[in-house]
């Protein structure tokens, strides 16, 4: 998946300008993101047992996300960064607030949200490669392909289960992503907006 043509905007330069001063927060929140991504896949796996092809893909995806979580923890340990509680940012919750409650619409929306979040993660990784130290840049470079693949998996299944309004629903979530990324945000996180 080409995330740059999928998303409606790029990460603002103002977010990138503060990253180097926020490495502990970046890594802790990234670890949390990987853990949540695995949990999302597992939740879908438990909820939609009647879709064997989907749950097999989600099982593999969850394992990959947990592997990424372990890798981030390894970087934190090597840099003496303690894994501690970090209040979540607004990004994922704002997207999930717009998920419809009734099936099969709920599944389609959750899959679309998953695709948008994974695409934004991939886009952020590509920007971080340009500004971080070689060790972290190499790590984020190694994640690009899998995050792009995850975004594509979620989008493919949303298309499979979605109806005539799929493009309209995707546009809703992409617009929310754009607004969150381009608007001021008082809490620096991996997916946060413009710091102030």
Automatic annotation (TrEMBL):
Q: Name one Pfam family in it.
A: MiaE
**Protein known as:** tRNA-(Ms[2]io[6]A)-hydroxylase
One GO BP annotation of this record: tRNA modification
Check the record and name the PANTHER family matching this protein.
TRNA 2-(METHYLSULFANYL)-N(6)-ISOPENTENYLADENOSINE(37) HYDROXYLASE (PTHR42637:SF1), TRNA-(MS[2]IO[6]A)-HYDROXYLASE (PTHR42637)
Signal peptide extent? none
Organism field: OM182 bacterium
Q: Which InterPro entries match?
A: Ferritin-like, Ferritin-like_SF, tRNA-Hydrxlase_MiaE
Q: Which GO terms describe its molecular function?
A: tRNA 2-(methylsulfanyl)-N(6)-isopentenyladenosine(37) hydroxylase activity
């Amino acid at each position: 998946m080409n995330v740059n043509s999928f998303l409606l905007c790029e990460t603002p330069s103002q977010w990138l300008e503060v990253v180097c001063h926020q490495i502990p927060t970046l890594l802790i929140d990234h670890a949390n993101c990987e853990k949540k991504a695995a949990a999302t896949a597992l939740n879908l796996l438990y909820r939609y047992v009647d879709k064997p092809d989907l749950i097999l893909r989600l099982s593999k995806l969850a394992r990959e996300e947990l592997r990424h979580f372990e890798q981030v923890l390894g970087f934190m340990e090597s840099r003496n960064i303690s894994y501690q509680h970090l209040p979540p940012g607004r990004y994922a919750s704002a997207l999930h607030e717009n998920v419809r409650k009734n099936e099969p619409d709920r599944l389609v929306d959750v899959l679309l949200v998953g695709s948008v979040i994974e695409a934004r993660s991939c886009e952020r990784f590509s920007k971080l490669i340009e500004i971080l130290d070689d060790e972290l840049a190499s790590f984020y470079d190694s994640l690009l392909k899998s995050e792009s693949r995850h975004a594509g998996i979620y989008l493919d299944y949303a298309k499979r289960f979605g109806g005539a309004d799929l493009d309209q629903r995707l546009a809703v979530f992409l617009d929310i992503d754009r607004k969150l990324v381009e608007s001021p945000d008082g809490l620096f996180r991996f997916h946060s907006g413009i710091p102030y």
